[in-house]
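PROTEIN DATA CARD
Card holder: Replication initiation protein
Chain length: 484
Origin: Streptantibioticus rubrisoli
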Amino acid sequence: MHTAHDLRHIVSPAVRDLLELAAHPDFDRTREQVQRLGGCTRPIALVGHTTTYDATRREVLHSYRTADEPTGRLLLACGNRRASRCPTCSRVYAADTYHLIRAGLVGGKTVPETVTTHPRVFATLTAPSFGPVHNRPTTPAGLQRPCRCGTWHSEDDPALGTPVDPLTYDYCGSVLFNAHAGALWARFTTYLRREIAARAGLSQRALASHLRLSFAKVAEYQKRGVVHFHAVIRLDGPEGSTEHPPAWATTALLADAIFAAATRVRLTVASDTIGDREVTWGSQIDVREIAPANTDAPLTDQGVAAYVAKYATKGAEDSGTIDRPLYCTPCRGRGATTTPTGYPTQCPHCTGTGLAELPASLPVTRHVRQLLRTCWNLGQHPEFAHLNLWKWAHMLGHRGHFSTKSRRYSTTLGALRDARRTHAAEQARIRNGHPAHDPAETLVVSDWRYLTTGYTPGEELLAETVRHNRTNALQLKSEGEVCP
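Structure generated from the sequence above:
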């Protein structure tokens, strides 16, 4: 066994820390905690305790204290949905999203299987043009044509999505569209109900007694840095998925109403700085019927669920931007902090700029850098203060949730997480030999406090081993081999 004196001569802090952990009598418990996280990139460390009492006899049934842990803390997965920040947690998020979307298409998770007979479509709403960009156009037959710049771009050409003429590109329009995309979607759903009601000869209020509009959507960034939405849209009876809509509510009627509603939606952004702007959807609107999974149709319910789940874990970084806030966290982007005596003073972290990183120093394209600058500059104007553009500059102005759903589309992510948490607790109870507890007859007293984020250097080595093993297992699985 290494002694403390021996460990001082080990140059690597990570190896030294790992050896110190390994020398602890309860090292297996530390390794178990790290393995349970599945390779989470930046876990949350908590300290505290929890005790379960018999509510009648006030006897202690079970107790747990982080003070008894080898490291004195409990590690929990970060739960970040972004694949760029935590691949492990994003896979869990994607799996939950897949089951949520699929349940609304084929049933399950409180949704009856009869939902497969309801009219349902997969709609894509895009942004308008803000100026010509480099792309890979194709003919109606699917053959590639040269870009308008005259170049035949390859699929990995970094020029794709960037303006052909940056001087005339509408950067303000791009940022403002992203900032209002959520509001544009909300107005679209209102117009869609109106269009459906008009086709049925009903008022919008009367429509509610005949059917309900249910949907689930996800945002995806195009290479040019603007969001567009993919949505599963379904027609139900008045009570939701448990009722079939009236016979006149067909898939064809739904598709026609979507096109009409998307064309009508308008949002006016009043501005004395850059002039009034009208925010609308683009002309490229796609609506396709969703077929059952056991058919040969090109768009099935299983394929749609997988597609939506894939993009639920992605963000603006797929368009080449950064995946972290641009503003200085200590001063919240103000460029100044307050002294203990209450006087404002220049923030020492950003030297008064309010920026954690200067756009000019970021490893991004000129197009993305200009979008970042536009977000930051517009965000400084009082008339755009409510958009928090400075806060969401790294998202190129988009500040909405990436995946949302209507209330009765299917289950919720919270319900799926609660079910997983309950199952894990039950398995831990069985594994540790604790008796089953009736929630109505037990009392749980807990006290938890946030300590820090991340691993120690030695724990990071253990986590990296877990990630390596999981990556190999997934690769073997994808290749059709049996994992050990």
